[in-house]
Write a structure and sequence with these properties.
The protein has 19 helices and 21 strands. By secondary structure, the chain is of the alpha+beta class. Among the domains are: 226 residues, no CATH class; 142 residues, no CATH class. It is globular. Bound molecules: zinc ion (2 copies). The site of one zinc ion (ZN) has 5 residues, from loops.
Length: 713
């Protein structure tokens, strides 16, 4: 295990290749067209079913119908993608990044495992990584049977069906568990300890999240507990304390808060909340069911050892934070009930802080009682009391002089995205501004600001910024954000940003929008610059490159041995030169005729083996009833009728992955679109007018189509 440090932030974005950029642009543009088509469809059919259905944010998997008045708009967007121009970027920083990727990421066949809290990475071979991963999994998890996973999916399916969403929600994506290394622990080199991360999450958690959001908002409005959402809220609480010098702090944090929440505790919190908000039995069922969690490693399901019903509030789940907030409200209420007269406590996730005017002796008793309250719910806390100065979140609060200033954990050196990173310019511009703003907000005066500024100033300088940090007291201390829900009716177009793209995508797009939906157009009301807006998205950063590389290294070691690539009786007859059994490919057919006409080409895709697809093609050339099945068969019939002699050759253009619920992306469909739109010379026969086609490869993952396998019955 060898330590590797990247000099720069792994959030830096390198320049993408042209095909990488174009594929992302196709993906984002397709997404936009899909949303615009649905909007147009419901605009024209105001009574259409589904226009006002509660969907909890799950979008329709159906392909929206073509809308005639939008066709030219879509055609012009395709034209924009096809004619994207690139230019060369001369930048030393970017050169260094690509060298980094080449030498440190792509070259090695060892994994780059990130450290838990620092920006260090460690090179590990797959065997030692797997040993370590396995050791950490078996510590807290046990294998569960397929029957168990099956029953969880069936339960989710029943919930989704009741809400008429089973045709929109996927089964749980088997996101693989992974580890990060705790390299700050002593004796790390000889005995590495890890943090086990389980990114698998039930999709119905998204429903639970919204239900909990509603409940939490209601509780917050009625109970007015100190449930802080950020440092600003903590400071506002601190500022409102009268006669600060009469108080002392009690600070605590809940040890492993998420995984310690039991089904009993969450149920009790829900019971408590139901006194303030109507919670139906069905809603309660959804919230609890969403916590049935499994861990996946090499596709195998594992369940928590300590939990009989697989109940587990995981860090990555959709509703983890909201579940904690509800439990937090319940606990704070209990604490207030007991100590409200002489203490005032608040909570930010698992960090608690309170002030007390009790004597030191009394405070010791309060400390004990507090531990007692938490332990009665199966929670452990670490606690400190009788303190005048405390570091809480990212501030140091002082009760003696009423001051506060920024706090950074020792050894925690801020590292910012480099000014030359391939981020949208607006993001880069805002980095120094937002640091300045945040630092000003958490410093009581210029003096406190100047004390903490040098560390941040250096980090900014190191990342290439020219900004001088200076204290700017904020005038408005408004806590309520009014931004929520205001932009509901806007459709966002998120084309990827990249410096090596010469075409101004934003301007080109808006021009097309203006020209295609002018004021007298039937859709002008729903499609104009106020309702369709641009916000650039980012290309993958270094961290994502590392994750992708790790994934492919791990897959290589566990992939089943390569099966026969061809089973043709006579290898010389193989239509794909010995590769006919390869699956999940984009292939190309080239049709040549004996006269001097130019050859015609056709691009297609198949998720199953090419051989199966080839058989279909062949039958469409011979069976007149299948004549119209593809553009290729149409062409062949045309040649046959003209009595022209022709030959067809086949080749594989790309082997890639079909739809995966983990990435929520179908590379197979995306690559096919890329070849057809951006490499028209490879696909002369294909029609080029469809951006919004639905992916056939995703349907099997829908809850609607989930069926228990025969083995589990
Ligand atoms: Zn073959
Ligand atoms: Zn697909």
């Amino acid at each position: 295990m060898e330590s590797t440090r990247f000099d720069n932030s792994t959030k830096d974005i390198p320049l993408p290749s042209e095909t990488e950029y174009k594929r992302k642009l196709i993906e984002k543009t397709k997404h936009l067209c899909k949303r615009m088509r649905w909007k147009a469809f419901f605009f024209l059919n105001t009574n259409a079913e589904g226009s006002r259905k509660e969907t909890f944010g799950f979008s329709s998997r159906k392909s929206p119908p073509q809308v005639h008045a939008m066709l030219n708009f879509e055609k012009r967007l395709l034209g924009m993608i096809e004619s994207i121009k690139f230019w060369k970027v001369q930048c030393e920083f970017q050169k260094k990044l690509s060298a980094d990727i080449k030498n440190n990421i792509v070259k090695s066949d060892k994994l780059l495992v990130p450290a838990d809290k620092t920006s260090n990475f460690y090179r590990m071979d797959t065997t030692s990584y797997n040993d370590l991963l396995q050791k950490n999994i078996t510590k807290t998890y046990k294998k569960v049977t397929q029957v168990t996973t099956c029953s969880i999916e069936l339960e989710a399916k029943a919930i989704a069906k009741k809400l008429h969403l089973d045709d929109r929600i996927n089964t749980t994506a088997k996101r693989e568990a992974f580890i990060t290394l705790k390299d700050h622990k002593p004796n790390f080199v000889n005995n590495p300890t890890c943090r086990l991360i389980n990114p698998a999450k039930a999709e119905i958690g998204q429903i639970s999240k919204q239900l909990l959001d509603r409940i939490n908002t209601r509780l917050a409005n009625i109970l007015q507990l100190n449930q802080w959402k950020n440092t600003k809220a903590v400071l506002s609480w601190f500022n409102n304390i009268q006669h600060k010098d009469m108080y002392s702090f009690i600070a605590f944090d809940v040890v492993e808060f998420y995984p310690s929440i039991s089904i009993e505790l969450l149920s009790e919190a829900l019971q408590f909340a139901s006194e303030y908000d109507t919670i139906t039995d069905n809603e309660r069922h959804i919230i609890l069911q969403a916590k049935s969690s499994l861990l996946y490693s090499y596709g195998e399901p594992w369940g928590k050892k300590t939990s009989s019903n697989l109940f587990d509030v995981t860090m990555g789940s959709y509703d983890g934070a909201e579940s904690c907030e509800l439990v937090g409200a319940y606990l704070l209420y209990k604490i207030k009930e007991k100590f409200g007269g002489i203490c005032d406590f608040g909570l930010y996730r698992d960090d608690g802080l309170g002030i007390s005017r009790a004597s030191p002796r009394q405070t010791e008793l309060i400390k004990k009682d507090l531990c007692g309250i938490f332990s009665s719910y199966g929670l452990k806390i670490t606690i400190e009391a009788n303190k005048k100065v405390v570091n809480f979140l990212d501030v140091t609060l002082n009760l003696s002089d009423g001051k506060y200033m920024a706090y950074t954990k020792p050894g925690n050196i801020p590292l910012y995205v480099n000014r030359k990173s391939n981020h949208p310019p607006r993001i880069i511009e805002n980095i120094p501004k937002s640091i300045n703003k945040r630092l000003s907000e958490i410093s009581i005066d210029e003096n406190s600001f100047n004390q903490s500024a040098p560390l941040y100033q250096k980090a900014l300088d190191d990342s290439g910024y020219h900004h001088r940090l200076a204290f700017t007291p904020s005038l408005t201390q408004s806590l309520n954000s009014t931004r929520r829900n205001r932009h509901r009716n806007i459709i966002w177009y998120n084309p990827p940003f990249s410096k090596n793209v010469a075409t101004n995508v934003g301007r080109t797009f808006l021009k097309i929008l203006d020209e295609e939906f002018p004021e007298n157009h039937v859709f002008h009301k729903i499609f104009n610059r106020n309702t369709v807006k641009i916000s650039y998205s980012c290309m993958p950063n270094i961290k994502q490159k590392i994750d992708g590389r790790n994934k492919s290294i791990l897959q290589k070691t566990t992939a089943p041995p390569i099966l026969k690539a061809c089973n043709c009786r006579r290898p010389a007859d193989c239509p794909m030169a010995g590769n006919c059994l390869r699956s999940s490919v984009i292939y190309q057919a080239t049709v040549t005729t004996e006269d001097s006409r130019p050859a015609q080409t056709y691009v297609g895709l198949t998720e199953t083996t090419f051989k199966t697809r080839f058989a279909n093609h062949k039958s469409s050339f011979n069976d007149p009833s299948k004549r119209l099945s593809t553009e290729l068969s149409k062409h062949i019939w045309h040649l046959k009728e003209a009595k022209l002699k022709f030959g067809i050759t086949w080749k594989i253009l790309k082997q890639t992955t079909p739809f995966s619920p983990v990435s929520n992306r179908c590379n197979l469909c995306l690559w096919e679109k890329y070849f057809i739109i951006c490499r028209p010379e490879l696909a002369t026969l294909n029609k080029r007018n469809e951006l919004v086609t639905s992916c056939r490869h995703a349907n099997k993952f829908l809850l609607k189509n989930f069926k228990p396998t025969t083995a589990t019955r």
